[in-house]
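Q: I'm teaching a short session on how sequence maps to structure, and I want students to see two examples side by side rather than one. Could you give me a first protein with its sequence written out and its structure tokens following it? Keep the formatting plain so it prints cleanly on a handout.
A: Of course. Example one:
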Amino acid sequence: MENIAPFMPLISFLVIAATLGIGAFVVKTRISRFSRKMFGTDSLIDGINEQKRNLSETPKSVHAMTSVYLPLIQKDFPEFDYELYKNKAESVLRGYLAAISTKNVNALTEECSLNLKNSVQSIIEELNVRNVNHIMSETVIHDTQIARYIKTGSTVTILFNSAVGQYSYLEDIDTGKIVVGDNKNKRQTIYDIGLVYVQDASKMSNQAGALGLNCPNCGAPITNLGNKFCKFCGTAITEINLRSWKFDSVKEQTALKKLY
């Protein structure tokens, strides 16, 4: 035993090293087994990265209720052209994203209400306060469907859902560095686009003007539908007309904190 005593520190080190090595081997084996089961690869990191790539390429599912709500809408509004307004909803969404990305409210289409324009302007101002740009590029709209049909005493709202894939991130204006988001993987998300029709402007107080409605005859802005006539050309404005439809909101569905 006396002859072994000088080697005890080395023996202890070797025992500890062997124990740690066996432990590491066991952990590595379990991780590899878990990774193969979850991702089909021995590398957990490669599996996670592959999963992230798959998620970035897989469109989210919209709340497709078109077949349920479209007959109800066309019963109330026989002139309503679904394909036309579906395309308009996608155009409004592209304009909304472009307006934020370029910080130019004029990128919004003419079908957008004053409410929506003010909302985009507020987002742009917040981005400027934070000294960042919200870059959104290579946007693909995978699908658009009617999600809800909402009738109140004063308005009717058709809510469209659009499944969108895009690169989306915040970039510091001064340094050009990405501060939030990712430019390597696309972000798959859902946007709600609200199309509003005013049924009874007298119940809306000053909100009718915020929708930015126009006279069906001369195209002049209608700031007070309660008057029943256009103050510029005298045309009655209480009858149903397609120019009463306005896109009043665009919102992203997300449980995560917004980028801006």
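Q: Perfect. Now a second example for contrast.
A: Example two:
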Amino acid sequence: MTRKKLVKILATITLLAMGFMMVTACNDSKDEKQSKKDRKKETVEETTDVAISAATVSPETKGANIHHVEIEVEGYGVIALTLDGDTAPITVQNFIDLAESGFYDGLTFHRIIDGFMIQGGDPEGTGFGGSDKNIVGEYAANGYENNISHVRGVISMARNGYDYNSASSQFFIVQTDSQFLDGQYAAFGYVTSGIEIVDQICVDTPVQDNNGSVLPGDQPVIKTIRVID
């Protein structure tokens, strides 16, 4: 083989290799663009879902994430709580809106289980009532990160057992550590003082069944829920 033919063959091989590299690079670039497009689409869809869910959160709450409230129970005193709007902004805003509207004034704790929790906020006092709207459940089983564990003193939203987005006005305060509820219910704050009132309510209140149902005449009354800040 002459030197001239060898040079020509090498040049051809080089051009073919460069062509292959260019095609591969174009395919990689196309795949990368498609991948980025898919990722962007997924992000937009996820963000849209969150945006729709968070539409009920007012700008005020978005800018001020920690709130303090007081639940005054007739004949017992005041349970003070801190609400975590960073973890559960939808839930906190709903609770504050109801409290500021006077919705909770005069309602009761209708379900009480000593060694577990006290539950209230139902205008019917039966466990089947609520406000005029339901809210999105902010907890892991419903696709929301919520790191508040259901330990003693935590406040969380009640819901029915089959609909993750059925919480409305009913809430419960945990008396005894109940981490088995984590990821299934929207915890949104914790008692800072007055947990002994929860204990006393559990001791004083007669219940009619293992579910902790309290007869109307025996239900402790929520005089008011005040939003401090």
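Q: What should students look for in example two?
A: Point them to this: Residues 95 and 169 are 7 Å apart (CA to CA). Also worth mentioning: The beta strands are 66-73, 77-84, 109-113, 117-120, 154-157, 171-174, 187-193, 222-227.
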